[in-house]
Amino acid sequence: MIHGGSYMGSFEKFINRLSNWGAALAAVFIGLIILLITFSVVFRAFHIALPGTFDLVETLIVVGIAFALVYGQLEDRHLRADIAIERLKGRVRSAIESFLGVLNIVYWFTLLCAAIFMITKKWGGEETTDILQVPVVPFRIVWVLALVLMFFLLVFRLIHHLSALIKGGKKE
């Protein structure tokens, strides 16, 4: 938590709360995907095809992955070279974490801009899935929301790392 101001701390809490709700939503959607695939496999054993299964899995997985990524960032469970970073101490560690934080922000901001561009490009076209004709734009919006949450989480994490760097490598 950032201790500098109550407004920033409240905003960070709000983003964290949204991210936790998103993680719960992701778990529900992944559970639905598991059930859908299970039913599809069982019905195929009896030579019954469920049309549109791929359409549904393809669209539902967007929500699952989007918020799973955000939750991984929230819990600091993402891939990185922890073995090397954990051995470092003080300002050197904070400087490297800050640099990596900037790279992460640039990467995820680029994805966010591309996703927003895709929404604006596809908005009026009524893009749908092939078989079931499920609208795709709402799932793109969920993806953008997750990317916005990821961006803010990364910004807050960078602020923490920069604060530690300024304070000589001591975390709050």
Task: Describe the structure in your own words.
76% of the residues lie in helices and 0% in strands. The protein starts with 5 loop residues before the first helix and ends in a 6-residue tail after the last helix. It is mostly helical and 172 residues long. It has one domain. The chain has five helices and no strands. The radius of gyration is 20 Å and the shape is elongated.
Shape, per Cα inertia axes: elongated
Q: Spans with pLDDT under 50 lasting ≥5 residues?
A: none
Indicate how many domains the architecture comprises.
Answer: 1
Separation of termini?
8 Å
Computed over alpha carbons, the radius of gyration is: 20 Å
Number of strands: 0
Q: What is the helical fraction, as a range of percent?
A: over 70%
Based on helices, strands and strand pairing, what is the structural class?
A: mainly alpha
Instruction: Characterize the main sheet.
Output: none
Number of helices: 5
* Chain-averaged pLDDT: 84
Elements, N to C (H/E) = HHHHH
Content of β-strand: under 5%
Describe the protein's topology.
Blueprint: H1 6-45, H2 53-74, H3 82-87, H4 90-122, H5 137-166
